[in-house]
Design a protein that fits this description.
heterodimer; A: alpha/beta; seven-stranded mixed β-sheet; about 40% helix; globular; B: alpha+beta; four-stranded antiparallel β-sheet; 5 helices
Chain lengths: ~400, ~160
């Protein structure tokens, strides 16, 4: 029999720490700080709109790019929050989560051999998506000394004549790092100078805790026409299971993405789209409440880590901290494994997120203060033992 | 800062001062001072415990009584209310807009005890025109808290 599999897909490495993930997910009594999604339920008024749409029998496909109403609300939202103007008819595409948007943006923009710059540590999907789109992922190792921000210098050093696209994953999972306007301006200069494009994954845009709100690179002069902004409902509105995201960008790119989307997906789930309209119309307060809650936990976690003498930079985004555990003479994976075995607390090894993650673990604060407190007591016990 | 402190302790009055200080990013002494000041000013009127009595097996009956009154000369609603709320059996008294004047919430051990209070103490009060007693059959949510079992964390334990 012939080999039924495509070489390209077989060559993509499965996530290296899947085994570790499996062990944790099976372990019933483990306290986990390893989750990458909000602990809140979707606010009821949003769920209620989803239910209402089902009751009214709105169970059909929507148009490929998404409900007109939803695209209009997304357009309003982008303007209100990030001062970005997108024509809802041609420049917005509603997708099945931010993930689909990342996938089809790469497929729409890459030719075989085009290099995609991916700063790491970052979310796990960018390199395989680039490969599946015939591109060549090129990772940029972000540095702890820069608090895991991408610098213009690092970007410049990674550019070759084949470079086409930069993935910009900020606010960042797993480091919690954010980029400020002046960082973005420097990056934008390099992008424009080398005639590159940016895929800006801003799924955590609503979850920043500094004084200034999130800035999108698309709002920097000259960048709108070079940027696909990806966002969604999962993190801001605690809607992970609804699988709903969107891409905003120049018409010529969105048009091609729509082609892939229409053949591969048809349309994003209708129920989710109706719920999302409500989220954008009346959900600003929900975001604010959840953000305040996350911020309190962030401060608490930072404080406790400091008390334990664990080095951790103050991250202002997402719901993760990325403490340094190199001092204990173990790899990230060993640390996570031992912590799980001896204290039954799960954290994610930094190496799960690519280069630059060794020596760090990701701690999520998408947990109640009580849960955090319990888990941190155990972590404290663990590090005290290690230091003995 | 007051609003932030209150928002926190309204949901969890047992939060440790130290933890609250860290979460709000201010020092412990400042919070202590604010709390004391607010107790003094009677902004904070008490620290109660929300109990689901149903689960204890201890019998309790709660009634919500709609009361219509005629405020008498020299004696506004406040005076009438005072005569009602001074009874220790009375849990809460609200002045209400609409079809009646006061909503009186009453707790007793048995139905009899509650009806006795209504017929012997409440109704005979001079200014009371009529009462309508509604017994609570089931408490679903109280003080923003759903009384049934807490939802479990349904998330996968670990995800990228």
């Amino acid at each position: 029999m012939r080999n039924p599999l495509s070489k390209r897909i077989v060559e993509i490495e499965p996530s290296g720490i899947r085994k570790f993930f499996d062990i944790v997910n099976e372990m019933k009594d483990a306290i986990s700080l390893g989750v990458g999604e909000p602990d809140f339920d979707t606010p009821w008024h949003i769920r209620d709109e989803g239910i209402y749409s089902l009751e009214k029998g709105k169970t059909f496909y929507t148009s490929n790019a998404g409900l007109k109403e939803l695209k209009e609300e997304i357009s309003n939202y982008m303007k209100r929050k990030f001062r970005l103007t997108y024509d809802f008819e041609h420049e917005i595409l509603v997708t099945v989560g931010g993930s689909e948007a990342i996938d089809i943006a790469m497929r729409a923009m890459l030719d075989p051999g085009d290099e995609v710059l991916i700063p790491q540590p970052s979310f796990v999907c960018y390199p395989p998506c680039a490969t599946l789109a015939n591109g060549v992922p090129v990772c940029i190792e972000l540095k702890a000394k820069n608090e895991f921000c991408l610098t213009a210098k690092e970007l410049k050093a990674a550019i070759t004549p084949k470079t086409k696209l930069l993935v910009l994953p900020f606010p960042n999972n797993p480091t919690g790092s954010i980029l400020e306007k002046r960082d973005l301006e420097e990056i934008a200069d390099v992008i424009i100078e080398h005639d590159l494009f940016v895929l800006s994954d801003e799924i955590y845009a609503e979850l920043t805790y500094g004084e200034k709100p999130h800035v999108s690179i698309a709002s920097i002069s000259g960048m709108r026409e070079r940027t696909i902004v990806i966002n969604g409902f999962s993190k801001a509105y605690a809607m992970t299971g609804w699988r709903l995201g969107y891409a905003c960008g120049p018409k010529e790119i969105i048009e091609q993405m729509l082609k892939i989307h229409q053949f591969a997906i048809m349309c994003a789930p209708t129920t989710s789209q109706y719920a999302a309209v409500e989220a954008l119309k009346n959900g600003d307060d929900d975001i604010e409440k959840m953000r305040a809650e996350y911020d309190g936990r962030r401060k608490y976690l930072l404080h406790r880590l400091k008390e334990m003498g664990i080095t951790c930079f103050e991250a202002y985004g997402a719901f993760y901290l990325f403490p340094y555990i190199g001092e204990f003479g173990m790899t990230s994976e060993e640390f996570a494994q031992k912590l799980l075995e001896s204290e039954k607390v799960a954290v994610v090894p930094g190496t799960a997120f690519g280069v630059g993650g060794e020596g760090f673990v990701r701690i999520s604060y998408a947990y109640s203060l009580e849960d955090l407190k319990k888990a941190l007591e155990r972590i404290e016990h663990f590090v005290v033992q290690l230091r003995k | 800062m007051r609003e932030k402190i209150l928002a926190f302790i309204e949901k969890n009055s047992r939060i440790e001062l130290k933890q609250l200080a860290i979460v709000l990013g201010v020092d412990e002494a400042a919070i202590m001072n604010e709390l004391e000041a607010m107790e003094e000013e009677h902004i904070i009127c008490g620290y109660h415990t929300l109990i689901n009595w149903e689960k204890t097996g201890i019998e309790k009956v709660t009634a919500m009584i709609e009361v219509r009154v005629t405020p008498q000369r020299g004696m506004g609603f406040d005076k009438v209310a005072e005569r009602i709320y001074n009874y220790s059996e009375v849990e809460s008294v609200y002045l209400i807009s609409g079809g009646f004047d006061f909503m009186v919430i009453l707790e007793g051990k048995t139905l009899r005890e509650v009806s006795q209070f209504v017929s012997e103490k409440l109704s005979p009060l001079d200014s009371i025109l009529s009462t309508k007693t509604n017994f609570i059959l089931k408490k679903y949510k109280d003080h923003g808290t759903i009384m049934s079992e807490q939802a479990k964390d349904e998330r996968m334990k670990i995800t990228p």
